[in-house]
Write a structure and sequence with these properties.
Strand order of the largest sheet: 5-4-1-2-3-6
Number of helices: 6
Number of domains: 1
Helix content: 40-55%
CATH superfamily: Ribonuclease H-like superfamily/Ribonuclease H
Largest sheet: 6 strands, mixed
Amino acid sequence: MNDARAPGSVVTIYTDGGASPNPGPGAWAALLMYRDKARFVSGFDPHTTNNRMELLAAISGLSSLNRATVAEVFTDSKYLQDGISKWVHAWEQRNWRTADKKPVLNRDLWMQLMEQAKNHQVAWKWVRGHASNRYNHFVDLLAGATIASRKGLDRKMNRAELDAALSSRDDLNEILARY
């Protein structure tokens, strides 16, 4: 990826997903930020797994982009980050089999993710979950709220408003009520 980009020309995407219990009802969430704009999306599945929701968060984040772009996708899932960065091409070469010849789990979603990623220049970045990254914390809370409400959402807001809300430690319900 070329680092001689104009400031603000990269779309930043934070993703998270989970099921509670695993397997069980689950949700994914993605936060997209570009220049002074932010958009957050989420979705619900009544019976799924953590790994499927992690994958759907990344797929949905990338599919929310309206044109080919340079994107940094942040995830706290080593399964997602290692899968797309290290494993997926070997799986594809082995006809979607693992090194020990078992079928790759979630093949349908890995294929969708590869299809979405090829439309963009994507840098996959791992961030420690449940640490001090406010955007990762936000998508974690959003996925949890989506499981609780059993309904996804799609909201846009000004990036400065999002940053101010996250800095003030407003709870997620207060942020969602405003937008």
